[in-house]
Amino acid sequence: MHLQTVEQVKFFTNDINLFLFCRELHLAVEQIKEEKWEYNGIFEISLSDEEMADYYSNLNSNYFNLYNGQ
Question: Is the pTM of this model over 0.85?
Fold first, then answer.
């Protein structure tokens, strides 16, 4: 049995090493352009007891709509 593939694969990445590796192997690759956002610094938020309980009950949600690591 002979299998033939006709689909072409294109890689999309933000990883510079992976991007250069794919180019070295002559694979189709594009860098993902990151959306630029303005960092506004540190937020100080005061919570009531009920808000604090709700926050700790839902740790997987982005309760304060913050960026990663903020």
Answer: no
